[in-house]
## 1
Amino acid sequence: MKIDQTLTQDATGTIAHLQFEAIGIPRVRTELSVSYIDHNTLQTDFKNSDDHRYLQSTAKRYGLFFSRPGNGICHQLHLERFASPGKTLIGSDSHTPTAGGIGAFAIGAGGLDVAVAMAGMPYRIKYPEIVGVKLTGKLCDWVSAKDVILEVLRRIGVKGGVGKVLEYFGPGVKTLNVPERATIANMGTETGATTSVFPSDEVTKAFLEAQARGSDWIPLEADKDAESGYSKIIVIDLSELEPLVAIPHSPGKVKPVREIATGGGNGPGLAVQQVAIGSCTNSSLRDFKIVANILKGHTIADNLHLTINPGSRQVVEHLIESKEMQYLVAAGARILENTCGPCIGVGAAPSSGAVSVRTFNRNFKGRSGTEDAEIYLVSPEVAAATAIKGVLTDPRDLGDYPAIEMPSRFIINDNMIIRPYPPREAAKVEIFRGRNIKPLPDFPLLPDTLEGEVLLKLGDNITTDDIIPAGAKTLSMRSNIPGISEFVFNAIDPEFPRRALEKGGGFIIGGENYGQGSSREHAALAPKYLGVKAVIVKSFARIHLANLINFGIVPLRFKNHADYDCIDIADRLKIAIKREELQDRNGLRLINLTKGSEIELTHDLSMHDIEILIAGGKLSWVRQRLRVQGSHG
Ligand code: MIC
Ligand code: SF4
């Protein structure tokens, strides 16, 4: 795929920009590249602020737009100011598909893939299956876009979208505005989908005009005969949906709020200690207008606190202008920054064992910063009703649904976006490199045989949060691979890094959907630094699989899932992986030297992937390619 636009954020951006520098070209070769600062703005010491300055200087030097800290969350901002129907976008963040709400073809990827796209090279993915999601009817009062995507998750689960694109169509689409479509596209990521896409219609046109970007609009819809080409069609009647909730600890565990709120009967209800509203899923003006009007005239319940992270300054400016901000403040909400905040464990960690009800997209164990907290994912309506009542509440119990008025023109104020410098000035910019920004490690070519011990054996649905924990402590180490590698598998086995180094590396064994969740390539890069040679699992999540390849960790699968049971931690394994062996997908054998047994392995690697692995990773491969192109003029 040719890539028109890229986005990076600070947490994945430092490494992505270091990699772009290592590729060695003077300026980005895309139509538009934006560097956002939105994930970690805690600045408890110099590290984080240094990273921001580094990113501001690389944006200046290499021709990117730069969105300053406090301006908003990358996906919300990109939707408002840059995303356009028909454009391709890749971003070093798994929720990049948010822009599918406006009809862009937007994919989350590892930072290195984004760096390579910034260098103008094509992005490769396995051609996805297309699943049609047909929407009919119209949402009832108190039910909103979050419930639509929770319903999709209820039907297909957290791996139902792997290798697929979800294409929305049908008469229900026109009843949803662009931010609502974006909420749905955003959380399609939780199904494992490559992306989600909506048509670009009159509703899209009106949104772009309201953002003073009417000229970016083009009409786009699925071909008339597209339905016959879908591998599957999911039909959702919007009028039948009710408020839903994803219960701990997976976005795929979806239940009706009514059922959880009262334990199925008329129980006392689920007491809640925190409500958090925001994140790239639910931080648009529409969402906060609803919340503000639900909270109007109320005080939040004594037993909880309420945090608010608006998605952008545009949202805040509107809430101030319309005085709806007053309702939030008066009700007792803690107004936090326009950043990811609590969603990535940066502040507002719940108290011990607390129940936290959030409008976010992920509720993996420990992600909030509190290992034993219980996170429930809901719509803004459910969150606001819960904040008032103090227990998880079906908002339909509140009575009349507040009417909200959306502006026909948004307040446009791009003064926190620094435009790309012209090439001549840009060339003179000096890059600011903080002392915590360590050089990228160099990795050798792939050996012919992998040999070593099983360092860890894991179950199904291991997330990249499990591999590299979220939170401010690790976020400020994202530009320091030796430093961050000390946190690998921290919550599962804190001894892992020491053991891996002591044993000279080895293997990881996993179950289904290994590496689901975030796009952070540190989940491959840091294990690689510790010497992990191959990861052998039942199945992989898409972005993590690409990241393993990019950093030269061989991703292998059990041919027979039952063989998973024949390997234990500390077993010594040997696998021959010369080019010929890798090319013959069915010829790979794993010798278990400890047990004296042999099992068959397979993989999903294309010839292209094999070349990258053999070159010792994508960075070396790209540099080789650019050298060859250069020598041909
Ligand atoms: C997330 O939601 O987990 C993040 C933080 O946005 C990540 C990116 C990262 O780890 O920096 C993502 O979703 O890709
Ligand atoms: Fe930020 Fe959370 Fe969205 Fe990730 S999921 S981009 S951490 S708001």
## 2
Amino acid sequence: MTPPVTTRGASMNVHGPRGHARALIIGSGIAGLTTALELGDCTVVTRSDLGDGSSRWAQGGIAAALGEGDAPDRHAADTLTVSSGLSVPAIVEMITAAAPERVRWLQELGAELDLDGDGTLALGREAGHSDRRIVHAGGDATGAAVMQALVAAVRERPDITVLEHRHVRDLVRANGRVVGVTAAGPGGEPEVLFADAVVLATGGIGRVYARTTNPVEATGDGLAMALRAGAVIRDPEFVQFHPTALDATPDPLPLLTEALRGEGAHLVDADGRRYLVGEHPDAELAPRDVVARANWRQRRRGPIYLDARLIGDDFPTRFPTVFRATMAAGIDPRTQPIPTTPAQHYHIGGIRTDGHGRTSVTGLFACGEAASVGLHGANRLASNSLVEGLVMGVRVADAIGQQRVRAIDPAHLEVPAPTGTPPTGMASPGPVRDADAVARLRELMWEHGGLLRHADGLRSALQDLDRLTSVLERDAVGRNLGVVAGVVLRAALAREGSRGGHHRIDHPDTEPGPGRHTLVQRDDIPHLPLAGSAVLDGRDDRHEVAS
Ligand code: SIN
């Protein structure tokens, strides 16, 4: 039965299928929709249209050991090498072992994956992979093709309710477990939705950076909500920056897939000099973080370009997404080098979960980019994120199916009162009110919380952030952006060493040993959502179990 709801200063509708769902899945990318399809009898709540979000933008593919001579343990070994010591081996083994079957599942669902002339899956190779194991669709339109199949499958399922254009604001708890969410409906009206389980599949945090390939939905809502509800966040300082995005005005910046460099495209300065030659033996094919930092340094000296002219007349058919974006910016990649910048691309850290997506709060699950299950460690291997969503969606569904649920005790219901106004225009939740404060936040994160970090810059960014707090908090999205920025900056300040995607100019040496995790909880950060000078304790978290 749905309990009565009272909150300070607001009346709320109790909304949902029969007033209470078996599970609420927040977010409709690859992880959220896979969970919904595997679980059934659930409700998907999404901020824009079903299927919008980062997954749809993925140009890179799905890594799975499907080729002759390849094997899941080879995929696992590559993942562990790139992860710089912080991934959880049992999780890496579990996900890489499940990957081939998940690709076949996608094909059965109707996703049109690229095939070779003989009708078998075409397998590409990307940096860090020892074998050809990257599955694509539509050349560089993998995310779009996969999401089209998932969205169509969800729309056909009568047991999955879809609530679009709802901005989930906070988690509702009772007796220490999560029992629902508060949300703003399509017209901004406050709602409370109840469920036996809540799954945060809200994607990444890219919008805290001035330069990002992430769409407008990637504002770290899940991470901020989980933190407010008391969940443990792991390694938030690990943010992956892509070396090559189109240096132009669109926001998000169009990605220039690293497959272009795999095909022989070169990075050059304004004089046509290949500045990566001599910097790393693999030059443009060096690990992604190495190329991204070199591009950051070189971009400070002047413009940089990706010269992909050698691809020639095949460009529009082989890289249709990149071709459309560059042509829209007035650059013909067949005849002109492409202006390039590094850009934020993926959040490696996130809400800590076990191998079934369970967070540290009962009733709360997370999967996909919002989660830190232990696959990526300190550095993500290319094309390992779509596959993570496909595998973890199944595991979360399995865990929810086995969950024993108690009735909600209305006397102990904790419903956070609405804070901040709803985002402006639910259909395109990019612009937030007080846009100047958000723009300032994004610039200071790009400058000080980005590819090269220093204690002085991180401290000054935290001070600036504190000054912006009161303005950011007026807006539901601005508040979350502020929480996320504060957590990333504090964790980056606390990690006095360099590892994977986290590089400290003042501590350039790689941390010794296998490394330690940064764990953050609400109590570590006084006066949530922003202020305070929390010291993150870097508690040892290496005893993770996969079950
Ligand atoms: C790319 O195509 O360069 C991106 C692939 C990924 O981030 O996994």
## 3
Amino acid sequence: MTIFEVRERYLNFFKKHGHKIIPSSSLIPENDPTTLFTSSGMQPLVPYLLGEEHPKGVRLANSQMCFRAEDVDEIGDNRHTTFFEMLGNWSLGDYFKKEQLPWVFEFLTNKDEGLGLDPARIYVTVFSGDKESDMPTDTESVDIWKKLFLEKGIDAKLVTLDTEKHGGEVGMQGGRIFAYGAKKNWWSRSGMPNNMPEGEPGGPDSEIFYDFGTEHNNSFGEKCHPNCDCGRFIEIGNSVFMQYVKRNGTFSELPKKNVDFGGGLERLTAVSNNEPDIFLNNVFRDALHILEYNSGKKYSEQSEAVIRSFRIILDHMRATSFMIAGGITPSNTEQGYVLRRLIRRSIREADKLGIKEAVLAEVSAVYGKSYAKEYPFVSESENKIREEITAEEAKFRKTLTQGLREFEKYAKHSTPDIDAEVVFRLYTSYGFPIELTEEMARERGMSIDMEAVHAKMKEHRDKSRAGAEQKFKGGLADGGKETTMLHTCTHLMLAGLRKYLGKDVHQAGSNITAERLRFDFTHHEKVSREILDNVEKYVNEAIEEDAPVILEQIPKESAKDEGVEGSFWEKYPDVVNVYTIKSNDGVVYSKELCGGPHVENTKMIHDTGKHFKITKESSSSAGVRRIKAVLIKD
Ligand code: SER
């Protein structure tokens, strides 16, 4: 079965049971500044799980794009990916355990409408209770599961293991239903009940595992049990009975009990094919061929270490495609940094595979095609994805070669440890990422005193921050008249750039003195003089219009909806300052989020008899251009 068939069957199944199918939310959370990525299906639905009414009703199902940055280091085994789709069905205060568990079991085992899995390969877990938070054992789920298995002719014995450690000691004991404690069978975005912050919903859950029947590997524990990581069992779904919320330090029942089911689409596809390697499905196939062709290595014939390199690239490039298509560009902060890390890591793994030419853009491009039907926005951004990856690859290949050479020098004649100073120098002189040095050291069994490295980094950051603080807010050197005029011109110029280069242009940095403005913005190629002339004209026209600069304070969400231009929205308060430059007959030249200061009217600039001129356009860093501009008299 392909990923698409599994997704379709699941959604159809739940549609038949009265669920409305809702689209996936964006990978970058829209109204949630607390987290960089959407990492579970329930995340965009939190307000509804807490009681808000959903416009589509009380039974919902979807396939949600997710990204788990915390799993980056685990990529390389046969079951983890950073980006994945999570199939989900929700009851918003409607049905509960009695309906949920039979439905999901039916979906998994039914040959015609579901996945047709052999029930004998299915094992389940339930919540054994938690003394600390005074939460009871979920006996109701145990009873439901017993009945469901019995209908398939399986006498399902309950075994209580409480912890993974206990599981590793005593093993399966002929069990089918396994009860674990809060660490394994309680779900909230912040984990166990006592870790939940105020206002967070959570509840006991019941996970489903598929048994591949492989030999237990006792480096993972003496004995095997469903939550053992040896590879025999894989978790394929989780029904969370979200019925509690933390208020005033204690747990209260939510007014309505919810169900939150999530199942990894890639994993469900893998088990449908009884194939333990989730990278062997249809969406990875073409990308894998490109890597095999360019490396001259066949995936199925390689050692674990080589297969790991293949998997890292396959995973990271898929995530990269979705991220760039979702509007992220490689940078040194937040989502952009995670993206940069994925690309750089892939470059290194490609290098390890013996691929010396740039191939990642080509690899990533095939994902747009694989997902053309469900997520057309990926293929629509194909050019942008290629450009960003090509730019990053061109730049980082050089860094990698230099960094590797330096690293080898130290590694050859040094002790089993790599000096913190060396790690730091590789970073500051060659831009060689610290986590990469760490990874290389680990591969050779060498160690690094990371505490010492972090101390050095902090010292470095504090120094540069002290420099930055001396600058005026908003990149202004001072609040003088010349500087303020140039600041207003900066807004007009950004609007002009967006008019002529497109809406992917955003501010990436700004520094304004009385003499000139310097402005960094996201764009991946040189801007022609012709376009710069048009932008200049746009700014000068607004200056000659004697247009008022209007300051309004509006709620952040409405500002976003109105398409106000701004970067770093998450850093602004709920009510934001928006500056609009608008001619007297209503032409809006610019509308931008900003802390000021600005001239009150472009007449102030007009009256000086000066006009706006772009003096220089150059590259600033990968995917970022830099403009310098002035106000001058002819
Ligand atoms: N929220 C649960 C999970 O992410 C089930 O969807 O596992």
## 4
Amino acid sequence: MNRSPLTQRPAWKALAMHYQEVKNLHLRELFAQDPQRSARLTCEGAGLYLDYSKNRITDQTLHLLLNLANEADLEQHIRAMFRGDKINLTEDRAVLHTALRAPRDRSIEVDGHDVVPDIHAVLDRLSVFSDQVRNGAWKGFTGKSIRTVVNIGIGGSDLGPVMAYEALKAYATRELVFRFVSNVDGTDFAEATRDLNPEETLFIVSSKTFTTQETMTNAGTARAWCLEALKEPAAIARHFVAVSTNAAKVAEFGIDTDNRFGFWDWVGGRYSMDSAIGLATMIAIGPANFRRLLAGLYAMDEHFREAPLNQNLPVLMGLIGLWYTGFFDAQTVAVLPYDQYLKRFPAYLQQLVMESNGKSTTLDGAQVNYQTSAIYFGEPGSNGQHSFYQLIHQGTKLIPCDFIAFGKSLNPLGHHHDLLMSNVFAQAEALAFGKTAAEVKAEGIADGLVPHRTFEGNRPSNVILAEQLTPESLGSLIALYEHLVFTQGAIWNIDSFDQWGVELGKVLAQRILPELESATEPELKHDASTNALIRKYRGWRQEQRF
Ligand code: G6Q
């Protein structure tokens, strides 16, 4: 694989020169000069339609970006991931979330072992269990059926399940209530359970490692909450199941190992929503719909693997994103789903993208001398329009946007959907083409207000459309971003699959906890600020009397 430093490669240097030539080109000119632009700069795959014509790119930009991908041996990287090579170098692991959605007749080997039958065996067990909970056959300790499912997990063991549950609510049973507890703040557990009946509640403890502080604390609190009502330790087996790779820790916690659903170390937390970590999703939408979700993910996997790079959605979006980060110094990307069901999608992407590519060390251990991951943020449209869009339209920063919308509403009410879609198209149009001072003046606006009412435009966006929000289209959308992240990580030459940056804070918290809780005044050896904060808290803690 190409290991010469990224910024010294011919395509990077050519892009740097090209940037100087095109940086002032306006989308107004690009569209005016080329009537075919919109038809040419669109792409379809796995049920998604991408219009990327409103980006600050020319055919030459695309050509050079594709050269950059080739110089980084992107196709070879893609093959290595799908093959199960240990591409997560710092953890010496394969990266095989794509195997989770491979059909039964596929064969994918990790260390000489075909993992596809294992994956389908777990899926089959999950399906049986989900059906039992859904149809009331799974009884709580006192013989009542389950009415509420509470997923306890954090990070990758929470954000995926909660996003998918919200996204696919239209497909979910309304007979069951779903709650998600993640934060170690006791408020999260207290509020999620305050109106629940322990006899009718099922906890899913979702933790790959089964050692995560927040999850184990919440799981312990849940066990105590359950036992306080049901008294008998035997009740735990009817009210707790675990999703984990760590069978020993699950048994130690007291969960019947028959009620453990496993997965594998080659599934990263933030890539695990379609593994057993998706149990809450499967109970909500049912096994058949869960398989439709897997089919959507698989369709995008196949597209990513097979489509030529210049017609490959994740590759195109990844390269265009890299163009803004690397050359326009854009710091962020706004993800703007025009669908209320996708309200947690930006939060999900925040982890997927930033935990994966928020790195500054290359795979060779060198410091990067270029920007890596953009900051992802967003809110569903049209809400965001009444909040932060002002800055995107008229602020001093360049914020590339991803608009996501669906042709057919799941809740067709009057002309709501036409209104929604008119807004998404209008926003992308306004950002790209703006409104000149001359246009503002022509409307008779007072001279003093003209600068305030002018829109510079030239603000780039992608528009991603699908016919309807379905399990399949959600799956395609998720895999689109997974592979966009992969594309960028491969070119930036970083490990997109580790997350060492979360470790230091965890270790320091472990040191601080006994200092907060000690009965005698501890000898504090932190910096002066941390020492003072600890003393301040200890003062309040003594007053509160636990
Ligand atoms: C994701 C991260 C992280 C992880 C959580 C929960 O890629 O690894 O967000 O998912 O820390 O970990 P457990 O599932 O082990 O509790």
